[in-house]
Amino acid sequence: MRRTSGSILWKLQAGFALAAMLLAAAMALFMDRGLQSSLEAEDAQVMEDQARAMTQQLATGRLEPPSGERPRLEKAEWRVQDASGRVVAASPALAALPALTLPGPGDPPREATSQDGRTFTLLVRPWRGPAGAGGRLILVMDRSHEHALVARFRRTLALAVALAALAAALLARLVAAWGLAPLGRIIREAGTIDDQHLDTRLAAEQFPQELQELVTTLNAALARLQAAFERTGQLGAELAHELRTPLQNLRSTLENQALGPACPPAQRTALGGLLEDCDHMAALIDQILFLARAEAGPTPLHRVRVDVAALLEEVRAFFEAAAEEAGIALGVDAVPLSVSADPLLLTRALHNLVANALRHTPRAGRVTLGAAPGGGGLQLWVEDTGRGIPPEWLPKLGRPFTRPPDEGRGLGLGLAIVARIATMLGGAMDLRSEVGRGTRVTLDLPCS
Amino acid sequence: MRVLIVEDQARTASELRSGLVNAGFEAVVATTVEEALPLAQSGVFEALVVDIMLPGRSGLELVEVLRAAGHPVPIIILSAKGNLEDRLRGLDAGADDYLAKPYSILEVVARLRTITRRAQPILAAPVQVADLIWDPARRSVARGGKRIELTPKEYALMVLLLEHAGRVVPRSQLVKAVWGIEGAVDANAVDVQILRLRRKVDDPFPLKLIHTLRGVGLVLEPREAD
A92 with A187, same domain? Predict the structure, then answer.
């Protein structure tokens, strides 16, 4: 299994959500604790106040039960016992004391839970009456309602925590998308750089600080690539010189011998064969150097407005005799169009294609040169009713030194050159073929 | 005609020189721009054949210096780089023609003849080679008194051969004359064109006029058998 380093967007989202959830949970905990302790503190205060008021009343002998001015929840039930434990007076709810352990008379309010699960706060204070009487005052506050309130509050807090996490995740998505947008721009801009545009650089100052180093590194890599390509190109030029100079000497010597007045006819024919070999080698060097130069980087194009139909007609005229001799109908099917292109390159491409087509089309076949708008620009094609190319060879053709094994002469550079010319002109070559039916090679050119 | 060859490679220069001498020119070799400049300025030479890559100053500089001094001497540039930019630079510098290495010496000869031809002789009178008669005014070619019907391309090819009757015409010259194309072309298409002309002009007759010199070109001259 392949390990990937995952998605930044997802990591950011998860991190954001987790952080928001922790923060919200901490706040919820704090609020919960705060609420609970303030409720407890307030209850204790209320009970102390009530106890103080009641002991003062008991000291004067006039006991007035606490009035209903306070909310019921905050009022404690009460019970007054004398020294022997006999109940002197009690609020109705405390006629019978629930089975709870009471705190000592000097203790702060204490919490206790009854057997049926209800929570109470208890407070015990001594009292002293006017006639030397005295005993204990017991206050009991039922806090079950409060607990229900706290529970509701907690549920709300939990919901808030969940919502906060969700909102954070959504926000993280937006922020991350916004933050990653320049990265997308780098990818798009870098994606447009092909071997014809190695001099392109990304403008580092247009990107956020954090990405500037990435852009600078990318630019440096491009510069190194460009330099390497240029070295290859220079090497190509030197290679051309080194190969052509001895070939020139060889050719000149052979030519002078062949044309010499004393040369016997048989030797002249042999020398002629060698001269043809020289020319063949020269053509190969030209083709290889053309491809090498095209690989090495942008080649200056000599673009002019080209009348496409006229160009196709010129190519047809060049091959007219050859086609007639081979019994092949060679025609042009073009709509009047013009394109900005290098006519020498286009001619070279079309010559290669028609020569190929004529070679692979049997007698009584047809080869058509065509042009029409299409594919978002201009399409030029050469179509034949030849024997076709086996499908397994289709994807390989157009690469240098690739040709089907039953193909006689040649290094398979012709189609590679056509493909290269198509890209040099900003387009692409498309090859379609069906065995036994024919082949169609299309040059898709931009409509500039 | 005197030609100055400016080429530093000794063998290349000597082969070119003997080729030009064989073709009836006088030729002198200089190996550097410094050596060539006074010779070219002396006015002795009717044409210059200059290699671009020379030790020290380049052949292009020689052309520029001569042109800046107002020298009209016809110049052919030779280059081993053989790309279009090089060619354009050569012509921009003021050269009259450009040839990429490996060139055919015969091609250099043909170009030299073209660029030094002062006034194109207007051929009006009929030309006869053996039993073939060419009447430029009527655009007709006849053999044994019978007119031969030629397509425009066949006629262009025939005229080129007739104009250089008895001399070898290099293939590249032929491609340029018939199709107006310079540079590499499909050899088969050229061969077929030649074959068809031969079929009309030579096949019915025992005396053959058009002859192929393998690897060199074509020549028009009467010969009994090929």
Answer: yes
Please give the CATH architecture assigned to the domain spanning B127-223. Answer: Orthogonal Bundle (1.10)
Model confidence at A208: pLDDT above 90: no
Structural domain of A243? 209-296
CA neighbours within 13 Å on the CB side: how many for B214?
Answer: 18
Using the beta-carbon criterion (under 8 Å), do B179 and A256 form an inter-chain contact? no
Q: Where are the domains of chain B?
A: 2-116, 127-223
Rounded Cα distance between A165 and A50, Å, is 45
Inter-CA distances, A341 with A338, A419, B81, Å: 9, 15, 23
Within this chain, do residues A156 and A281 fall inside the same structural domain, yes or no? no
Q: Do A41 and A148 reside in the same domain of the chain?
A: yes
Contacts with A353 from chain B: Cβ below 8 Å? none
Distance between A374 CA and the closest CA of chain B, angstroms: 29
CATH of domain B2-116: 3.40.50.2300
Among the candidates A266, A296, A326, a domain finishes at A296
| Cα separation values, A109 from A42, A77, A259, B83, Å | 11, 14, 131, 104
Is A68 buried (19+), middle (13-18) or exposed (0-12) by CB count in 10 A?
exposed
Q: Considering only alpha carbons, which residue of chain A is nearest residue B105?
A: A252
| B102 interaction partners in chain A (CB closer than 8 Å) | 244, 247-248, 250-251, 278-279, 282
In this structure, are A180 and A227 located in the same domain? Answer: no
Same domain, A10 and A121: yes
Is the same domain home to A216 and A343? no
Q: Is the Cβ pair A322, B85 closer than 8 Å?
A: no
Cα A356 to the center of its chain, rounded Å: 43
- The verdict on a CB contact (< 8 Å) between A252 and B22 is no
Among A97-101, B112-116, B208-212, which range has the highest average pLDDT?
Answer: B208-212
Are residues A226 and A280 located together in one domain of the fold? Answer: yes
* Residue A378 pLDDT > 60: yes
For A256, which of B82, B105, B189 is closest by C-beta distance? B105
Is A359 inside any structural domain? yes
Q: Which chain A residue has the Cα nearest residue B214?
A: A272
A29 and A111, same domain (yes or no): yes
Contact A258 B216 (CB under 8 A): yes
**Among B104, B111, B108, which Cα is nearest to A254's?**
B104
pLDDT tens per residue, range B7-42:
999 999 999 999 999 989 999 999 999 999 999 999
Is the bond leading into B102 cis (omega within 30 degrees of zero)? yes
CB of A175 within 8 Å of any CB in chain B?
A: no
A317 lies within 8 A of chain B by CB: yes
Tally the domains of chain A. 3
Instruction: Measure the CA–CA gap between B98 and B91, rounded to whole angstroms.
Output: 7
* Contacts with A344 from chain B: Cβ below 8 Å: 84, 183
> Which ipTM was obtained for this model?
0.88
Residue B146, chain A, CB below 8 Å: the answer is no
**Shortest Cα distance from B197 to chain A (angstroms)?**
10
> Is residue A68 included in any domain, yes or no?
no
